[in-house]
């Protein structure tokens, strides 16, 4: 006898995530029934679980990376050769060697170099000297002018050129004037189109004196003051602006500047000259004494 059994099943699926070990649980209950309406003793319930483990594998490899050694590029740069000129009226005028009070001249500082767009220059610490121990400062250590009637702030048309026009002036009782300026050369920063120039305020005007021209003992400017109602004025330097030099500074420091030598080199040169002078003097005295001694002996023998 054959019995036909019809099976009916129901299932409910659940998903569970697990971290240890990492994976996914798939769980479901399967109910096998022999009757669609009633539960009998022959019915069965099966719980089915499936675990899918998550595979995790870390792969690492240590790689040591070192930078290549820097390449040294050595290049000898010749320093620029600088000069100072006093030109007639403009930067392109002829040189001036003799001038009259009130004449318009152009003070020009230039430096020549073989390497373009490499150096920057700064003119600073300028003094004017009468050659007899009195000097007045025109530019300070930053390159800024101190008196607009003597020399105003310089202009820098190029990286290695500076200049400014000014009227000729002189010491009241001196015919010659000596300008002493310093030029600083620096390497231009890469990527800059122009060199940095000093940012200076407008220089003031030193105080004015009412002393007559024949009694003036400082600088007298022959420049017309158009701002005042006076036709012409004499500008007298204040006493605190005049620096007096002693005998050593007049005869030693200025010689160092003219010879372009350091103090040590100048001292060695003076010592060497003194030593040669003493040796020469001793040699002359020795020769003279040596020549006179035979004559004395001859005179003694003749007398005997």
Automatic annotation (TrEMBL):
Domain ZP stretches: 1-202
Major location category of this protein: membrane
Presence of keyword Cytoplasm: no
Transmembrane feature ranges: 268-290
Coiled-coil residues: none
GO cellular component: plasma membrane
An example molecular function term from Gene Ontology annotations: structural constituent of cuticle
DNA damage found in the keyword field: no
Membrane topology: Single-pass type I membrane protein
Record's keyword terms, sorted: Cell membrane, Cuticle, Membrane, Signal, Transmembrane, Transmembrane helix
UniProt cross-references to PROSITE patterns, sorted A to Z: ZP_2
UniProt-annotated location(s): Cell membrane
InterPro entries in the record: CUT_C, CUT_N, Cuticlin, ZP_dom
PANTHER family: CUTICLIN-5, GH04558P
Protein name: ZP domain-containing protein
Species per Swiss-Prot/TrEMBL record: Caenorhabditis japonica
């Amino acid at each position: 006898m054959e019995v036909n059994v019809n099976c009916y099943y129901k299932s409910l699926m659940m998903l569970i995530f697990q971290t240890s070990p990492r994976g996914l649980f798939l769980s479901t209950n399967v109910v096998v029934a022999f009757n669609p309406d009633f539960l009998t003793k022959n019915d069965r319930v099966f719980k089915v679980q499936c675990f899918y483990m998550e595979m995790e594998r870390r792969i690492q490899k240590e790689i040591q990376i070192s930078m290549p050694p820097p390449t040294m590029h050595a290049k000898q740069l010749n320093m620029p050769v600088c000069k100072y000129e006093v030109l007639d009226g403009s930067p392109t005028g002829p040189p001036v060697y003799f001038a009259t009070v009130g004449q318009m001249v152009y003070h020009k500082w230039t430096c020549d170099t073989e390497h373009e767009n490499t150096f920057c220059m700064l003119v600073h610490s300028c003094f004017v000297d009468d050659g007899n121990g009195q000097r007045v400062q025109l530019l300070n250590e930053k390159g800024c002018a101190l008196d607009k009637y003597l020399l105003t702030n310089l202009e820098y048309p190029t990286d290695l050129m500076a200049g400014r026009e000014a009227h000729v002036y002189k010491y009241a009782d001196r015919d010659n004037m000596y300008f002493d300026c310093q030029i600083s050369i620096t390497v231009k920063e890469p990527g800059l189109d122009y060199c940095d120039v000093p940012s200076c305020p407008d220089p003031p005007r030193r105080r004015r004196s009412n002393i007559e021209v024949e009694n003036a003992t400082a600088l007298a400017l022959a420049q017309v003051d158009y701002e005042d109602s006076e036709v012409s004025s004499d500008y007298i330097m204040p006493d605190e602006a005049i620096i007096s030099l002693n005998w050593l500074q007049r005869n030693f420091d200025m010689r160092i500047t003219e010879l372009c030598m350091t103090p040590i080199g100048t001292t060695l040169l003076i010592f060497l000259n003194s030593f040669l002078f003493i040796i020469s003097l001793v040699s002359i005295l020795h020769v003279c004494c040596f020549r006179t001694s035979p004559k004395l002996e001859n005179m003694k023998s003749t007398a005997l």
